[in-house]
Write a structure and sequence with these properties.
The chain has 128 residues and is α/β, with parallel strands linked by helices. It contains 5 helices and 5 strands, in the order βαβαβαβαβα. The longest helix is centred in the N-terminal third of the chain and has 14 residues.
């Protein structure tokens, strides 16, 4: 799942993921509120259709990545599996990186654009 208000960034991330592994199913949301609604609905279903990985942008209008994380962490106990969440952002601010570490739900911090090397590192983390 890709959550980014910029459709161009969603296209780039989608293309990179497809190039990395064409069998991966990708859902993208330009509205983080819609993504939260989807995850909330899934948390209530007996058979949940949850992503394995979420790529989340930080800088979005209305609901930014930080606000998304606050809502998301409340849904976690309701999920039937672990989801790896990566911040995928254009911000290379040390304060953002430091703040990201205060959220245990964040697996890592990736600076845009998403690239094959980042995806290879993620795949290695999954296979450990």
């Amino acid at each position: 799942m890709i959550i980014d208000d910029d459709p161009i960034n969603n296209i780039i991330a989608r293309h990179t993921i497809r190039h990395f592994d064409s069998s991966i199913v990708i859902d993208d949301y330009s509205d983080p509120e819609r993504a939260l609604k989807f995850l909330d609905e899934q948390s209530k279903n007996r058979v949940q259709k949850l992503p394995d990985v979420i790529f989340l942008d930080l800088n979005m209008p209305l609901i930014d990545g930080w606000a998304f994380l606050e809502s998301y962490k409340n849904l976690l106990p309701l999920f039937n599996k672990d989801i790896e969440l990566y911040l995928l952002t254009s911000s290379n601010s040390h304060s953002d990186m430091k703040r990201a570490k205060t959220f245990p739900v964040v697996s890592n911090y990736i600076t845009k654009p998403l690239n094959i090397n980042s995806l290879e590192k993620i795949r290695k983390e999954f296979s450990v």
